[in-house]
Amino acid sequence: MKALLHATAAVCAFGTYAHAERGSDGQLNIIYWQAPSTLNPYLSGGTKDLQAASLILEPLARFDETGALQPWLATEIPTVENGGVTEDLKQITWTLKEGLVWSDGSALTSEDVKFTWEYCTAEGGGCAQIEKYGGITSVETPDNQTIVVNFSSPKPYPYTAFVGAQAPILQKTQFAECMGSNAVSCSEQNLAPIGTGPFVVSEFRPNDVALYNANPNYRDADKPAFANVVLKGGGDAASAGRSVLETGQFDYAWNLQLAPDVLASMEAAGKGEVISGFGTLVERIMVNMTDPSSDLGPERSTVAHPHPFLTDVTVRKALSMAIDRELLVEIGYGDAGRTTCNVLPAPEIYASTANDACKTQDIAGANALLDDVGWEKGADGIRAKDGQRLSLLFQSSTNAVRQDFQVVLKQWWSEIGVETELRNIDASVFFGGNADSPDTFQKFYADVEMYANNFDGTDPEAYMSNWSCDQIPAPENQWQGNNMPRYCDAAYDEMALKLSQTASLEERAALAKAMNDMLMQNFIMIPLVDRGRVSAKSNSLGGVILNTWDSELWNISDWYRIKD
Amino acid sequence: MLTYITRRLVLSVPTLLLIALIIFLLLELAPGDPMAQMPLTISAEVREQMRQALGLGEPAPIRFWNWLVQFFWIEPQVMIDNLFGTSLAEGKPRIISWQHHAPVMDIIWQRLPQTLWVVGSAYILGILIALPIGIYQAYRQYSVFDQAGTFVTLVGYSIPPFFTGPLLIVLFSVQLGWFPFVYDTTHQVSDWESFTFQVKQMILPVMVLSLQTTAQISRYMRASMLDNLDQDYVRTARAKGLSEARVVISHVLRNSMIPVVTVIALGMPAIFGGAIITEKVFGVNGIGAQLIGAIQANDLPTVQTLTFIFAVLIVFANIVADILYGVLDPRIRYD
Amino acid sequence: MTDRLAHQSTRNQQFWRQFRRHRGALIGGVVFAIIVLGVLLGPMIWTIDPGYPDIRARNQGVSWLHPLGTDQLGRDTLARLMAGGRSSISVGMMAMVLSIGLGCLIGMAAGFFKKLDGPLMRLTDLFLALPLLPLLLVIMMLFREPLSRSIGPQAGIFVLIVFAIGITSWMPTARVVRGEVLGLKERDFIRAARAIGATNYSILKQHIAPNILSPIIVSATLGIATAIITESALSFLGLGFPPDFPTWGRQLSDATIYMQDYPGRVFWPGLAISLTVLSVNYLGDGLRDALDPRQQNLRK
Fold first, then answer.
1. CA–CA separation, A473 vs A441, rounded Å?
2. Which candidate in C218, C251, C279 is best for mutational testing of the B interface (most B CBs within 10 A)?
């Protein structure tokens, strides 16, 4: 690799034209410490895979760094105002840009777009992004440039199909044989899809490395500036950070989940800089409203048995008040985190300010609150009422920052007379939906648990419906469902239903905010930190705009080598 | 001896089948889900559809039978096809990974070179260093060399690779800038320059790995040599007037090799198995990284295939060790 | 009867004389005793709670308040080192004893009794081949709840960790011991013992066991180091002690990322593990020399 770097340097030295010509800037080295395993985003929901594929495959529209939609392969974003979306919200019409070609030289037509929908919704294909195509009854192609999508019911937010890094366009000729149950065995296609993006894959080794060359048929004749890209996977966040910030072996490192002081000392080496941006990812504590006691056997953590003390809202409120969120940010995330009192922190129009009191820690207040309702401190300093001690089992997934958080949370809670037992569980078990395992976050055989969640794109409808009654995990639905707190309120469900039928953005925002406030003021979830994305780039890499709403490599065609 | 070898080889077939079954049952029993690494934004229904697409809907006995057929019947055909250009296996279902939807054996072949380069050379280097150290330590028991050797090897063994790896990176890559530390798996050795680059990028992981091997084998070598140095036959040999070197090398060493051979043979399959932590720290992405990645993603076909190949190597390495016992000590007979 | 007792006591005296003469063993024994006493009695003198995060005093250097500094959450390193030592040493020793015991038992049985050799060695092959992580996950899933219910959560996890490490690390010892026994049992003195009608048990105890001590002691020494490190890997995966429970291995792995800025934090747990392993090694050497019948004869 070093030899190649020297070669690159030589090319740069002799190149008199800046970044005006395709391929003039040599090689770009990117490191992802979680290696991409496939280049077909429809077979894998993993962020690393989506991002590695985003150099090749492109959607009709994608989100920019502010979360706004930008037309990409389409000429414009269809809206009701410009006539692209019908008044009844049941039809959307996209128009492709003129003269688009695949990297093999053939033309991109509306047939390819229609095929992408058919591919993802085919029976037995196991498409990970099928929800992006939910509610579509048909896709029509009146001509080569026009795509008309029909929905079964009014779709207030129709920008999910063919939009963003999750739902790019596949080439029909390449994937025609890979429909349905054949999708999984089409390894040649899955590992080397043909796309319209700035790069084409030249070699892909799953979970190791992807090599790309500039796409000779890319629509902008001067781009991309780099002739080839090496996307190396593997290692850990620390070695990825070192390779960009301390040795300069790589130009760009993705997702550096490292303690803030560690990152700062790496950055001090002067070879590169840390960049960060915020999305919708919130680290939160889920409060179990049902009884996880092992005496209940198969009825543990089901709505049949309410929790002995967490159903008391003052206890939940006290737990939240005891937390110093500023300090959590400082310990765990530094510049890549900020305090939040909402589970819906962004985009701007959805962010509530009604709950901001949580930003200041108030241990005395929490103690007073618990005293008032009769939770008395016992001889061991632990509060109890009617023989029920405030003793929690607190579980989370294995991750250095989460374990540090667990320790300090335990300390703060002990200061308000709550005893905490800690557990950490390997992420592959914790986040796995295996109904036979007792340790999944859905089964929630604990009193409180901590993890982070977010939503794709900028529309919170699906995300906010996570806490409606029918999402409660239970033995009847094999413990599937996203309502970990087992919260159930008819008023909340009603608002969720209303949200799915409302088109006006202002009204949607007001509804989503109200739902967020309802959850927050009942302390069903305790938000801790609004987590940003942290990446690092070398000083010689220009054009990088960190985007948390889409692939981080979304504008790689604009990246270039800075010459001194 | 020949009948013994044949008997062992024949017996290893049912053993291996049983091992395959037990591995399969263990993986079935283990908690975990191939969907665990999917983002939380993907809903439960979609996850279930994806599981069905992977074939998880089939009952366990059928999946085990399919794997057996694929491993013992179809994959060998693919190998023949690749060697002789035939098309025996065309259209037959191969063992497909749940993670990347590519044939598991293809990925193994892709990853074998870097594993053999790094882990293999570390192992050989470790043995080559360990044997003389252990022998000389025993020969000069309680000398300064012996004490220093004990100290270095034991401290080296006590410090795990998750620490020595980053330590060497900080020392040699960050501070001194001598070696790269992110392994380039696509590097091709074609001339002297590319060979020196290959050596440079191998140095750090090889150092970490060979430290462990050296420590382990030199301890066994030293202990076993010490046991034999006071034996009567050594005194007899010296009394016969044999040179000191001959006494040590051809008498003591030969008789001291049994535990050492055992340990070396036990380590051989591990060369194929790769080194999980070291491979991860340096981004070598060999078989070890593949196995741990597959376990974490609950990619059962990959885990089953890799572990089974590993089991085959273990069984054969132990047969080789048993044969070597007979060669080293003719008194050991197996009939 | 008195004869035998007298014989026994002279043997014990001989053992001690031999052991004391071994300088390395003596130093090793003293160092090991200091470590054990330190972690057992230390917390009575140094009474800071090892689990208390003094968040305002994070990443402190050496001071009177914190002689070895504090970690990234402001916990006192010295207190954690002592608390960590209790768990690491006890897990290390117990797991080593279990693994060596199992290994010796299986290795000796396989090497000595021809009928058992095949089945036992195939069992060893099986255990060598099983993938460790899924095996541990299954063990934890099956036994964690029942054990913690019957003997309490802390003791339950301790037993489980020792069991998990022991059950997954006895195989090399078994192979090594078997190899040695295979060679030994064809030696003349064993044949002689058999010819004079010694029972299998007494041959194994009197003649075989003392002669395979060397490799066993090496296995044991290396086994302690492996067990301490494996424990930290288990805890890291969430299969071991809870995350606020200090152990040396966990302290070392937590601190690795900080080694450039706070080298002290990796130095102390690293030193503690190394010293323990080294002292046990020298103790073992002394033990071997003292027990070895040949060396006694030689030095008479």
1. 10
2. C218
